[in-house]
Structures are given as structure tokens and as C-alpha cells.
Design brief:
single chain, alpha+beta, SH3 type barrels, 7 strands
Amino acid sequence: MIRRALGLPLVAGVLACAGNSAPDPPPAPVRHAAAPAATARDSALEQRAARLELRLAERDAEVADLQARLDEAREEVVRTLAKLQTVASRAEAASAMAEAEIAVQGLRAAAGPQGSGAAEVDQAGTLLQQASGEFGKQNYGGALYLANQTKRVASLGRSRLGGNGSDRPSLRPGEVAFAVAVQLQAVARGKIREGPGSTYRVLFTVEPGAALTGFSYVDQWVRVADENGHAGWMFMTLVGRRG
């Protein structure tokens, strides 16, 4: 009897506890972030970083070009001081002026009817006129120097325009030309296309580390040329500054 009396409260307590316990709530649904939106945002940031990298490369190229001009001017002054007792021959000056005239004509052809590179055309033309004036004064040394300067300005102008003149395509709507040619390299294997877009025909492919020269850009595409002079358009994130 005692054993049965003790068992009844124990069973009642167990049943009471079981009745008062609430069932576990169902697990909350897991919410995943919108992957497409995050991917688009990352792509936009990557493209913006690539554009800033290109602009920095352009500034570096401008600084390098200015430094090259300064070095050339300094060397020319030294050569002039060293040659005070020698006078350039009339034939040498005339030959340099003829070469300068051809270079200016080539620059004008590269500039085209749209007037791209007008600053270089004007500068080269002015230098050539000055060379002709010094030649008329029989200052053949001065004429030779100015003729060489004319050729250099014309060469830099054609390099910036990114072509060899007659076969250079005109600037597209929205295309922005770099102030000077920019030294770039491929950061990944990429396709060089006929135009600035993935729907254009693939001209050739470059490997990572390939040396390229950039001339302009449209949206996310850069007009480049390889070391063999083959030109086309490459997606901006696939190129970077050359070390």
C-alpha cells in the first residue's frame, strides 16, 4: 500500500510536466542575400577601379613625356655649347628640313579632317617655319636643331593619335583620346576585338603580360596596339599599367 501511494504522486507529476512543456518552434527560414545585385555592384566597382588605373597610367605617361622633352632640351644645349666652333653643313640642314616636312605632312594626314591632334600639327608647323627662317639666315646649325624638333613633335603626335596615318580610324562617338600614348600590359588572357563591344569580331588574342600601347577609350573598352602594330579594342579590366 505504501509503495502504491508513493507511485501515484510521482506519475502525476511526470504527466503534469509533460502537459505543460510547449513544442519546439519550427526553424526560421534562412534568408539569402540577392546574389545578382551584389555581383553587379562588384562588377561596377571593378570597372571603376580599372578606369582610375587607366587615368593614372595616362598621367604617368604625360610625366614621362615631359621628362623626356626636358632631357632632350638639356642634351641639345650641351651639344650646342660643344659645337660652337663647328657649323652644320648646308646639305645636312636641308636634308633634315626635308625629312621634317614629310613628318609634318604625315601628322596632318593622321590628324584627319576632324582636327584630332591639332595642337601637335600647329606646333610642328611653327617649328618648321622657324627652321626655314634660320636656314635663310645661313644659320644651318639652328635650322638643323629646329628641324629635328619638328620631327620629334610630329612623331609624338602620330604616336598619340595611335595610327600610321591614312589607315587610322576616326574617333568614334564618345571616344576619349589619351593625352599621350599610354604604356599598358595585359593582366589576363584577353581578346582584341574590332570595335568597343563584345559583339564585335575577335581579331586576335593576347596573353598575360603582353606589352600594349593604349590610345583612347570608350565606356569600358580601350583601344590598344601590340608590339607588332596590330590594333583593336580590349575590355578595360583586362589591361593595367606596365611596370
